[in-house]
Design brief:
Elements (H helix, E strand, L loop, with lengths): L1 E4 L12 E4 L4 E4 L10 H5 L10 E3 L5 H4 L2 H6 L6 E4 H31 L11 H8 L2 E4 L5 E4 L2 E7 L7 E9 L2 E7 L22 E5 L10 H18 L2 E5 L5 H14 L8 E4 L1 H11 L7 H9 L9 E3 L3 H6 L7 E5 L9 H8 L6 E4 L8 H6 L4 E4 L2 E4 L3 E4 L9 H11 L5 E5 L3 H15 L11 E3 L1
Parallel strand pairs: 3-4, 4-5, 5-6, 10-11, 11-20, 12-15, 12-16, 13-14, 13-15, 16-19
Antiparallel strand pairs: 1-2, 1-21, 2-3, 7-8, 8-9, 9-10, 17-18
Helix pairs in contact: 4-5, 4-8
């Protein structure tokens, strides 16, 4: 059996994709888009191995795990794409948005190229390619053995990372031998609000483990919530705007829950909140249709009173005109807008209009990839470029790592600890090199298992 790392390897965090090949079958686990950095577009345009591909399995809906799926349809892949029901709904939302953004970006670029006398470029894929692959999704239940292709079965279990997220175990019959390969997908922190905790597997011959935060733990959630509360109270008292670059799935819903709790407890008087992200608005509706995936505490909270009742001052901004009107809104107010890494989307307009104002608060609530604008703000750069214009950073920038949807070091080791007694080979991916090197050292020390740190497109034999 051969497994090729087609993404999230060699110190790369995005682009998750693993090609599993046996003598009789070929399946792809995840098919994510590379994000951030100048090399991302080139990597995304690298041909995927569609010939002979029997099935695709998806761990969860985030773009860095689903964003290249339409390329399979573009290359005439017509087979099934297996995922949990909530992941299907989230993936459809996310790849449609990706195709729409690319169509707009390429149209603007080609207008410039036409004026310069250059030939037009094609988008990575079109909305038609997105719709084609969406039609090939097949829902799977949690914790049941599913035959995805003769000789390969799969089990999805809760990963606690986002709505519908899962870790996947493959049970592979290859040349008369049965092997189990586990892909962690992205793991969520234990005891996080809204979602249930991850459910680790107990047995594997090989484990592909994410290592995004393999070097550290996040700030405890209660401390992070207290810090967020203080930022909000300070902004309310000083009349400042709070800008939150928000991942549309997960972070937006968590922040709305926290604001609901603040208003319900009378911690602050209600103030204007803008959900300036059509995708986050749609994702919130999907959340409301999947209460079966919520944890007990969240179910109790919304049973007392739906959070919408606390958020009477929340305005959803669907159109660009809705978004532009926020510029006329005085503080205090809070704006949640994508993209979460400040590498695109409406948040860029809000940052351009407000970063240079000392009363502005920018709250970073998730992972920021290398070279992204979000990472530059986290690193404390005093001048940044937005739409080609230099903008002074005088706003207060807060980094709240405790809101991360990724497991920290302790939770990663706890998840792996459940499977370690089966003595699997360990492969660390989905992490920058310093992070996965530290996690590898800890796994070696605690379990006497020496993890592999593969490069991009490396072939691993089992």
């Amino acid at each position: 059996m051969k497994i090729t790392t087609l993404g999230a390897a060699g110190g790369e965090v995005t682009g998750s994709a693993y090609l599993v090949q046996t003598k009789s079958a070929s399946v792809l686990v995840d098919c994510g888009m590379f994000q951030g950095g100048q090399h991302a577009d080139e990597l995304n345009r690298t041909a995927l191995p569609v010939q002979g591909l029997d099935a695709v399995l998806i761990t969860h809906g985030h773009l860095d795990h689903t964003g290249r799926l339409p390329l399979l349809a573009k290359a005439n892949y017509a087979g099934p794409v297996f995922a949990t029901q909530a992941t299907i709904e989230m993936s459809a939302l996310i790849v449609r948005d990706s195709a729409h953004i690319q169509a707009g970006d390429i149209e603007r670029l080609n207008r410039k190229r036409e004026r310069a006398g250059d030939p037009p470029l094609e988008p990575l894929y079109t909305p038609a390619h997105a719709e084609a692959i969406i039609s090939q999704f097949k829902p799977v239940p949690y914790r049941q053995v599913i035959t995805v292709v003769p000789g390969i079965q799969a089990i999805w279990t809760e990963a606690g990372h986002m709505l519908g997220s899962a870790s996947i175990q493959l049970i592979v019959d290859d040349d008369g031998k049965t092997k189990r390969i586990v892909f962690s997908g992205d793991l969520g922190p234990k005891n996080a609000p809204i979602l249930k905790d991850y459910e680790p597997f107990a047995e594997a011959d090989m484990v592909f483990l994410e290592s995004t935060y393999g070097d550290r733990d996040h700030q405890p959630l209660d401390e992070t919530v207290a810090e967020f509360d203080n930022i909000v109270k300070n902004a309310v008292n000083t009349g400042g705007k709070i800008l939150v670059p928000t991942f549309a799935v997960g972070r937006a819903q968590l922040l709305m829950l926290l604001l609901s709790q603040m208003f319900r407890s009378n911690m602050v008087r209600p103030f204007p909140i803008f959900l300036d992200s059509p995708m986050a608005i749609s994702a919130t509706e999907i959340y409301r249709h999947h209460h079966e995936l919520f944890d007990v505490e969240t179910l109790k909270y919304i049973a007392q009173k739906p959070e919408e009742g606390d958020l009477q001052t929340l305005k959803t901004c669907v159109t660009a005109e809705d978004s532009k009107k926020i510029n006329d809104q005085p503080g205090p107010c809070l704006v949640m807008a994508g993209a979460g890494m400040c590498n695109a989307g409406r948040i860029l307009h809000h940052l351009k209009a407000n970063l240079w104002k000392p009363e502005t608060h920018v709250v970073i609530v998730g992972y920021q990839s290398a070279e992204s604008l979000g990472r530059r703000l986290v690193n404390g750069e005093k001048i940044v470029s937005i739409f080609g214009e230099k903008i002074a950073v005088k706003a207060q920038v807060h980094t709240l790592g405790g809101f991360s949807a990724h497991a920290g070091q302790t939770d990663l080791l706890a998840w792996f600890g459940a499977i370690a007694p089966s003595r699997p080979r360990v492969v660390l991916t989905h992490g920058e090199n310093p992070q996965r090197e530290i996690l590898a050292k800890l796994i070696d020390q605690q379990y006497q298992l020496k993890p592999q740190l593969p490069e991009l497109n490396e072939v691993i034999e089992l």
